[in-house]
Specification:
875 residues, alpha/beta, Rossmann fold, Isoleucyl-tRNA Synthetase, domain 2, seven-stranded mixed β-sheet, six-stranded antiparallel β-sheet, 28 helices, 33 strands, globular, binds ligand ANZ
Length: 875
């Protein structure tokens, strides 16, 4: 049973009730089902994990990717994501840091809406229920969260600020509208997201889908392409993630070169190329099917074929046209371009592998120096002219993509190709036929969704005539520098932002959140959509109540799920502020997360979008750092016991609830961290979990006696067995360093070694027992609190100062010296580490065993190896 579902009780609580009734649990037994809820309750009551604003201690802000509360509840992968930073947080707290570990819910999104579509249950209801369950599960794992800072992206008090940021983007010209294709499913009567369309059919039901053009909001993330790339150098992130972002941004340095078009004196065909050094080798050109020149230059005899080709291309996605397209197809337009470097004619083809949305939508093709063009030229019998040799000047085997010396390039022959690359652009620039440019693969961010369960846009649409009436100096409406408008049937509509003080614009309630046939659910709420707006105050009314009121339509798209997660890390610093996103002083005190952990799957979307908004907020002066996540870490995926990805269909999913019920959260926590290095992908093992559970039982039994009180073995004395003492200091050193470096697995091994030593020693000091419990506390906090309490402590173990080690204690004060008599091992002596030959000999003479073997013999020769051996030759 999932947390909080059913009887409304934590499964632990249920089992405890049973146990208490039957008195099954003697106090000396380690029983997580009793201990864990007990301490979770105490932590909550005492607000043990409250982060204190402006506290004098140094701050430590740790953040895990906040969960999307799905109906399925937590799986063990999430558990790993929350447990690991919790260990760090608990350690830092004990180290004297003012630790902030918050969480919240990324709760808008499609699953709740799809569930509503199937069951009729409103997303608000499912979302609240799922959040309750997740909160319960996170508590069940013993994660130390400051619950007073919990946020929920679907709470109007939260999305007020998501809308506020959007309005700022709108005001600064970074939000605009564009007609863009979306997937429409006639049978379902709805727009579908890309991920809901599989192989050209709806994921739900498998119905046919078609492309429909709809007006969409787009955010100009490309304005930040340069900063998004360059600032990556300043963050401590996994290399692969940094590289993925760099590739996604795709900075490309090249040149635009303008070609004349034969027979069309008023047209220019401008291409984008990263290889202007190959310009003399151009034998054909390829333009995208959507390029405006296609219609103008295609000759009559080629028109029918070209039209058919263009039509076929229109139904393909960019991905189908590029990455997934192995066979580069094309069709000749019958027209020619004139090469500005030598006046040579080049055929102009249409090819769908050239994208209209990248560069200029047109390319030069150089078969001698590009594999793709080479194959194309061979297939269509187009001339191939080599213009670059091997680096040593010899003729290269074609296609040759490297650098070398220029040939067949007129006056530039013999010049190095790298030098020529710059030179030709400079020379063509003199006659405005070329210019150096930078392009990015990054596209602007399509920011509209045709769903119900998202943030409404705080935007109204009004007529052009009414827009012109607005007095910019007086109005409270938010207006962009350049108007944002669209045209329909020859009439223009202009976007205005609601006054900032009117936010939040609440998501209106709807019975059926998936009305059939509507492009957007909100568009069916005509009373909500059609309003009158006062052009001065920005207030909206159901009726025209004043002379300044004009009719307006609300925007009926909602924001994508990414919006709320773009800035949530800021809200934790000041979650209840109604006047600002975050108070500046609190921002300055806490700063950005010192540690941010989550799965690698978000390498580009969330982590890029959040950086974009952060850099925008930085430019507005709202945040004081250029990057939101200075240190990022990805935990590895946990596989099923069969080493396959966990999935319902494989039946290899491990449910944390079950594990907690069977072994307790401490065992789950310890095992998750003991499985292997945090960043590694690792398979689950039932045997492994048994092993760590036994370790915890042993730890408990070692310090707690049969009567449930301190074990008789634990002595309240300053004396400690030298071996135990040495190992304790080594363990403090290693566990501290390992936690800092997130090597939780090796820290746990070391604790196991120490426990073995404590078990072998006849006694253990109370001090050592306490230190061991403190070291164990980040990993198994419930057990640690319980033992700590029974050892006579009154505060939480996490509040006690982390144990320190003494470097000098790490060195053994004594050594074992082996005594051989005539080559035979006769005795072992424990002596001071720095004992010399005379001292060792004196000790040997006094040793009973040595005395026996020396009876009647004289020492003839002594061989002494310092710290190890005393060999006596006797006769
Ligand atoms: C001539 C050439 C010769 C090229 C050569 C490459 C190699 P990146 O680095 O990815 O920016 N290109 C330009 N616009 C394109 C478009 N809209 N669709 C498809 N391909 C396009 O790549 C830039 C190169 O990709 C450009 O340089 C152009 O081909 C092609 F030996 O120009 B090149």
């Amino acid at each position: 049973m999932a947390c909080g579902v059913g009887l409304g009780l934590h499964p632990h609580v249920q089992s405890i009730k049973l146990r208490l009734m039957t008195q099954e649990t003697p106090a000396f037994l380690y029983d997580p089902a009793i201990i864990e809820p007990k301490w979770q309750k105490k932590w909550l009551e005492k607000k043990a994990f409250a982060a204190k604003d402006f506290d004098k201690r140094p701050k430590f802000y740790t953040l895990f990717f906040f969960p999307y509360p799905s109906g399925e509840g937590l799986h063990v992968g999430h558990s790993e994501n929350y447990v690991a930073p919790d260990m760090l947080a608990r350690y830092k707290r004990a180290q004297g840091f003012n630790v902030l570990q918050p969480t919240g819910w990324d709760a808008f999104g499609l699953p709740a809406e799809n569930y509503a579509r199937k069951t009729g249950i409103h997303p608000r209801i499912t979302t609240t229920k799922n959040i309750d369950n997740y909160r319960c599960q996170i508590k069940m794992l013993g994660i130390g969260i400051d619950w007073d800072r919990e946020v929920d992206t679907t709470d109007p008090l939260y999305y007020k600020w998501t809308q506020w940021i959007f309005l700022k983007l709108f005001e600064k010209g970074l939000a605009y509208v564009k007609e863009s294709p979306v997937w429409w499913c006639q049978t379902l009567g709805t727009v579908l997201a890309n991920e809901e369309v599989l192989d050209g059919k709806s994921e739900v039901g498998g119905y046919p889908v078609e492309r429909r053009s709809l007006l969409q909001w787009v955010l100009k993330i490309t304005a930040y392409a340069d900063t998004l790339e360059s600032k990556l150098a300043s963050v401590d992130w996994p290399d692969s993630t940094r590289r993925q972002q760099i590739n996604w941004i795709g900075r490309s340095v090249g040149a635009e070169v303008a070609f004349d078009v034969e027979g069309h004196p008023n047209e220019k065909l401008t291409v984008y190329t990263t290889r202007p050094d190959t310009l003399f080798g151009v034998t054909f050109m390829v333009i995208a099917p959507e390029h405006p020149l296609v219609q103008k230059i295609t000759t009559a005899e080629n028109k029918a074929k070209v039209d058919a080709y263009v039509k076929a291309a229109a139904s393909k996605s960019d991905l189908d046209r590029t990455e997934l397209n192995k066979d580069k197809t094309g069709i000749f337009t019958g027209a020619y371009a004139i090469n500005p470097v030598n006046g040579k004619k080049a055929q102009i083809w249409v090819g769908d592998y050239v994208l209209g949305s990248y560069g200029t939508g047109a390319i030069i093709a150089v078969p001698a120096h590009d594999e793709r063009d080479f194959e194309f030229a061979k297939k269509h019998n187009i001339e191939i002219i080599p213009v670059i040799t091997n680096p040593d000047g010899t003729e290269a085997t074609l296609p040759y993509t490297g650098a070398g010396k220029m040939v067949n390039s007129g006056k530039y022959d013999g010049m190095g190709s790298e030098e020529f690359k710059k030179r030709i652009v400079e020379d063509l620039a003199k006659t405005s036929q070329a210019k150096a440019t930078v392009n990015y693969k990054l596209r602007d961010w399509a920011f509209s969704r045709q769903h119900y369960w998202g943030e409404p846009f705080p935007i109204l649409w009004i007529s052009e005539a009414d827009y012109k009436k607005i007095d910019r100096a007086k109005t409270k409406l938010v207006l962009p520098k350049d108007p944002v408008f669209y045209e329909k049937g020859g009439v223009k509509f202009f976007a205005v932002g609601l006054p900032q003080e009117s936010l939040p614009l609440k998501l209106p309630d709807m019975k059926d959140v998936h009305p059939k046939g509507a492009e957007t659910p909100l568009s069916t709420l005509s009373d909500w959509v059609n309003v009158f707006v006062n052009l001065e105050t920005g207030e909206t009314h159901a009726k025209p109540q004043c002379p300044k009121c004009v009719p307006a339509r609300r925007e009926t798209n909602t924001m994508p799920q990414w919006a709320g997660s773009c800035w949530y890390y800021l809200r934790f610093l000041d979650p209840h502020n109604d006047q600002a996103i975050v108070d500046r002083k609190k921002l300055e005190y806490w700063g950005m997360p010192d540690f941010y952990i989550g799965g690698a799957a978000h390498a580009v979307l969330h982590l890029l979008y959040a950086r974009f908004w952060h850099q925008f907020l930085y430019d507005l002066g709202i945040v004081n750092t250029e990057e939101p996540f200075p240190k990022l870490f990805h935990q590895g995926i946990i596989l099923g016991e069969d080493s396959q990805k966990m999935s319902k269909s494989r039946g290899n999913v491990v449910n944390p609830d079950t594990i907690v019920k069977e072994y307790g959260a401490d065992t789950l926590r310890l095992y998750l961290m003991f499985m292997g290095p945090l960043e590694d992908m690792k398979p689950w093992s039932s045997k492994g979990i048994e092993g760590v559970h036994r370790f915890l039982r042993r730890a408990f039994r070692e310090f707690i006696g049969e009567d449930g009180e301190i074990s008789a073995k634990v002595k309240d004395t300053p004396e400690e067995n030298p071996e135990t003492e040495k190992l304790l200091h080594a363990t403090i050193k290693k566990v501290s360093a390992d936690i800092e470096a997130l090597r939780f697995n090796t820290a746990i091994s070391q604790l196991m070694i120490l426990l073995n030593q404590i078990q072998t020693a006849p006694e253990v000091s109370l001090q050592t027992a306490k230190a061991f419990i403190q070291l164990l506390a980040p990993f198994a906090p419930h057990l640690a609190e319980e033992v700590w309490e029974r050892l006579g402590e009154e505060t939480f173990v996490g509040e006690a100062k982390w144990p320190t080690y003494d470097e000098s204690k790490l060195v053994s004060s004594t050594v074992k010296i082996v005594v051989q008599i005539n080559g035979k091992l006769r005795a072992e002596m424990e002596l001071p580490a720095d004992v010399d030959e005379a001292g060792a000999l004196a000790a040997a003479r006094a040793n009973e065993k040595v005395k026996q073997h020396m009876e009647g013999k004289q020492i003839r020769k002594v061989i002494f190896v310092k710290g190890r051996l005393l060999n006596l030759v006797a006769g």
